[in-house]
Write a structure and sequence with these properties.
The chain is about 35% helix and about 20% strand. It is α/β, with parallel strands linked by helices. The strands form four sheets. Strands 3-2-1-4-15-16-17 form a seven-stranded mixed sheet. Strands 5-6-7-9 form a four-stranded parallel sheet. It has a four-stranded parallel sheet with strand order 11-12-13-14. α9 links the parallel β12 and β13. Bound molecules: guanine and fe (iii) ion (FE).
Length: about 450
């Protein structure tokens, strides 16, 4: 049990809902045992003697959740971006990921990644590692040490890889996954496993069947890719001729969400992950009898109406990755539609389809590509607003971890302190304008403090 009780004082900003931001100048965000006790303009009597860290007029905002990125790809971010998805995977990504068979290379590469992630605007992340178990455990050890809260997946892939990047068989992949889960049991406080079939073209039906079993046995969440690129979608149709649409090719194996999803707090997550409890099966069956499989699907750029409906009905999270979708020319996801339908939508950098780790940059990209979509593709679909982009980066993705992404009472205390004094201006500007400028103009120098679950990380 964490024992922290303190307040951060400054210009506090968080989402009231998808459409509205709350701005509280000269106010206090109180952290009690890792949870937010609320935001106050004056400290209530019960907190009047607690330590106050006065941040002046710096902005204090909830941390951002990067809902989709690839740790091994950070090493070559910003290169090799003239190809579409399938060629990009074969010529650049797979050979690069193969290098993580060598633990000394993995150590060098992951040290850089974790250090940069720690100093980025991200407090939580859902991360793909590679298929290599030892390197994945090394990455998890480093992330735990960083203080960030993350979900990390050993990748499964038993077909269509490269000679140097493919598991020997479905059984070998499943066995290695089980060994990974056993080896990390009880090892971490804020680093969680997440089942990670790379995408349908990488996983045989036999492997998907095994992963479905492992999911139900360990109550793990799942992350994968969905409807990112036209060539990929056509290939899935060939590989899984009986699937009605791409998402159905995951659902056939019980790997496509359910309702209700797990979560509300960390304790629930711990039990959902199966790591801190013995058996809790009943809690993981939803009211209509489906087993609970909290799922993130990255991209959903070209999802059909049926697929979108299943995403909604089964509570699947969409990780919207606008920078990656631009870089490897996948397209522009219909995020306005997803938000208006009430889907769970968070933002992902998808490094290294995306080149930047910055979640502010992801917000800017989400707003910008939505304007192009509106102008060029569908004038009934209004662009994404600053309020909506901020919501997706905080509560939208954060809620996959539980009560995360807000300063309302009871949320986990993830906070970032932002000094924007280097973004100079001669005129008076509003707090909203300060926040908007950080979306477009910030870099890591603007981040001067970061807390995750009440822990000071930087
Ligand atoms: N689909 C399967 N693997 C990948 C990957 O590494 N990156 C992206 N963007 N899409 C994928
Ligand atoms: Fe990806």
């Amino acid at each position: 049990m964490k024992k922290d009780l303190f307040a951060l004082k400054g210009t506090i900003c968080y989402s009231k809902n998808q459409k509205e931001l709350v701005f509280a100048e000269n106010s206090y965000a109180v952290c009690e045992n890792g949870l937010c006790a609320g935001v106050f303009s004056q400290l209530p009597e019960e907190y009047k003697d607690i330590p106050v860290k006065d941040m002046g007029d710096r902005l204090i905002i909830p941390g951002f959740t990067d809902l989709h990125l690839h740790a091994p790809q950070y090493a070559y971010r910003g290169t090799g971006m003239d190809l579409e998805l399938l060629d990009w995977l074969n010529t650049i990504t797979f050979p690069q990921e193969a290098k993580y068979a060598d633990l000394s290379y993995a150590k060098k590469a992951y040290s850089i990644f974790v250090d940069d992630l720690k100093h980025s605007f991200t407090t939580r992340a859902c991360i793909f590692a590679t298929l290599h178990r030892p390197a994945t455990e090394l990455l998890m050890d480093m992330l735990e040490e960083s203080g960030l809260a993350t979900m990390v997946g050993k990748v499964n892939m038993d077909r269509n890889g490269a000679p140097e990047l493919q598991e020997k068989s479905a059984q070998a992949s499943a066995q290695d996954t089980r060994q990974w889960l056993e080896e990390i049991k009880g090892r971490y406080d804020h680093t969680y496993p997440i089942l990670t079939p790379r995408f349908t073209p990488s996983c045989t039906d036999e492997l998907m069947t095994e992963l479905g079993k492992i999911q139900r046995e360990y109550h793990l969440p799942v992350q994968s890719h969905l409807s990112e690129n036209f060539g990929e979608i056509a290939w899935v149709k060939e590989l899984c001729p009986t699937s009605r649409f791409y998402g159905d090719a995951y659902d056939m194996f019980g790997l496509f969400g359910t309702k209700p999803a797990f979560n509300t707090n960390e304790a629930d997550f711990a039990s959902a992950s199966g790591l801190n409890t013995t058996d809790n099966t009943a809690a993981h069956i939803s009211s209509d009898g489906a087993s609970v499989c909290p799922t993130i699907m990255a991209h959903c750029v070209h999802s059909t109406d049926e697929e979108i409906q299943m995403i909604k009905d089964q509570g699947v999270y969409v990780a919207h990755c606008p920078e990656s979708n631009t870089d490897i020319a996948s397209g522009i996801a219909p995020v306005r539609r997803y938000l208006d339908m009430g889907l769970h939508v968070g933002l992902g950098t998808d490094v290294a389809g995306g080149f930047s780790l910055s979640m502010f940059r992801a917000m800017a990209d989400a707003i910008q590509v939505s304007k192009l979509r509106w102008r060029l593709m569908d004038q009934t679909q209004a662009p994404v607003t600053l309020e909506e982009a901020f919501y997706m980066a905080t509560i939208g993705g954060g809620s996959f971890f539980g009560k995360v992404g807000s300063f309302e009472k009871g949320y986990e205390f993830d906070a970032m302190i932002l000094d924007d004094s280097n973004i100079r201006h001669p005129q008076e500007i509003s707090t909203r304008d300060r926040l908007e400028r950080l979306v477009y103009l910030s870099d890591d120098r603007n981040l001067v403090g970061k807390y995750v679950q009440g822990r000071k990380v930087i």
